[in-house]
TrEMBL record:
Coiled coil: none annotated. Residues 67-91 are annotated as: Disordered. Gene3D superfamilies: Urease accessory protein UreF (1.10.4190.10). It comes from Streptomyces tagetis. This is Urease accessory protein UreF. PANTHER family: UREASE ACCESSORY PROTEIN F (PTHR33620).
Length: 244
């Protein structure tokens, strides 16, 4: 359900950088789309998946549900930490701060927090959970999307591997769906591209799940500078089909 584009978490309004890539002529057909998706998955997709898996594991430990919190280095409870603070005292707070540092584009940081707020709102409506309520109220500006996704996944009974898979699925299907609308590509051909990515998606999900307990500062920091630059340019457009 979390990976379904119809889940009302706002993902359908975002192209994952594809709209800017199409406008720049970097993606014109299904071959270009596949190259774009592989690059995105290997960089920002892999980073997002690792953070979603780690957030899922942290939420499972009671970071948001029981108020104990976990130290940012994974060594145990954080003295005085409330578990949902964004000041680094709690595991989720540390993850949020580290993901912020891995997102150099202000436009993408704003998008991630917006999507995080929408994810928590949708998840709390679908499956009410006191931990999600506490998480939503702990950071008025909203949590970054992979942190919110990981927490929502755990609240729905999923594990880190499944949270990572949902993050990667979103990273691939969002731009792929946008490509159909932006370029008029054959939906069957686009889904054939997605089917061909399954082995890579599975590999990245397993790797991300294996990093679920890694200290926040040591989680992957795979970047895609061109996506960051394109996001800033895209944010200045007066007319656009997608929010990002």
């Amino acid at each position: 359900m979390l990976a379904d584009g119809r889940f009302p978490a706002g993902g359908h309004a975002h192209s994952g950088g594809l709209e800017a890539a199409v406008a720049a002529g970097r993606v014109r057909d299904t071959d270009g789309l596949e190259a774009f998706l592989r690059g995105r998955l290997a960089t920002t997709g892999a980073t997002t998946a690792a953070f979603a898996a780690a957030a899922c594991a942290a939420f499972d430990d009671g970071t948001a549900a029981d108020g104990r919190g976990t130290a940012a280095d994974g060594s145990g409870t954080a003295g005085g930490g409330d578990g949902t603070a964004a000041d680094g005292r709690g595991r989720l707070g540390a993850l949020d701060g580290e993901f912020e540092a891995r997102t150099p584009s202000p436009a993408l940081r704003a998008t991630s927090r917006r999507l995080g707020r929408q994810m928590l709102r949708a998840a709390r409506s679908v499956r009410p959970h006191p931990g999600l309520d506490a998480l939503a109220g702990a950071l008025p500006g909203g949590w970054h999307q992979p942190v919110a996704l990981g927490a929502a996944a755990r609240a729905l009974g999923l594990g880190p591997g499944e949270a990572a898979s949902a993050a990667l699925h979103d990273a691939a299907t969002g731009p792929a769906t946008a490509a159909v609308r932006l370029l008029g590509l054959d939906p069957f051909a686009v889904h054939a591209v997605l089917a061909g990515l399954v082995p890579e998606l599975d590999r990245l999900a397993v790797r991300a799940a294996g990093e679920a307990d890694t200290p926040a500062a040591r989680l992957p920091s795979y970047g895609a500078p061109l996506l960051d630059i394109a996001a800033e340019l895209h944010a200045t457009w007066e007319v656009r089909l997608f929010a990002s």
